[in-house]
Amino acid sequence: MLPRPYAEFLRKARRATRRADEAEDLLQTVLVAALEAGRTDLSKIENRRWLEGALRRRAAFDARSTVRRRKREAPFAAGSCEPTSPETVPVRFVATLPPSLRTTSLLALTGHTRQEIAWLQRLADPALRQRIAEIRRRWLAFGGDPIAEIPGLTGALAFGSIRRSLLAITKQPGTLLASHDPDGHLFVIGTSQNPMPRQLNRRATAITG
Question: What is this structure's pTM?
């Protein structure tokens, strides 16, 4: 992208995002999406409008993801009076668990649903419920506040849509691995199939969402 159009869309990204320091990351993500969608010709007004709309939608999506992440972290963060980061408390707690409960906890904290955890650990539903109850009991003994649900087990993400999207991605040539993070952002690991020069994509990072 030429310097002038890039600067113009960077200003639009700063207006779209709630944090100015995230504007360039936002723009880079949208530029990768534009490249994949074949909308790199900015002499066309429809492509410029597409980019502007993509910036707004992506900024709104990232804002919602941040809110969801904070809600998941809040029960663990509230369990300690020490000035410890929200990420540190679950790690310290999980380290105290026996291996079987530790695996269940890590799967839950990384966004897996009950059904996924049961399948991955080959557990019947009653056995999984017992593990969850034991994790809650140990969490209270660790000093955490009571929690109605362990983060990740509520199934708030649209896992059906995510799986369908991942299935479509894995069918593309060169794809080695496709998955998602706890916020639902998709990421792909694969070999490059694009022989064209990458000047346009030099400033862009791999798309995750």
Answer: 0.35
